[in-house]
Amino acid sequence: MGSGQSSGKLHCNRYLDGKGPPSLVQQVREGVGELHRGATGCQLEGQMTWVILHRELPRFPDDNTVQINFIFPDGIQTEKHPHPRRPYSGLRICAYLPDNRDGRAVLKLLEKAFNEQLLFTVATNKDGEDVVTTASIPLKTHPDGGSEVDGYPDSEYLKTVRQLLKDKGIE
Question: pTM for this one?
Answer without folding.
Answer: 0.75
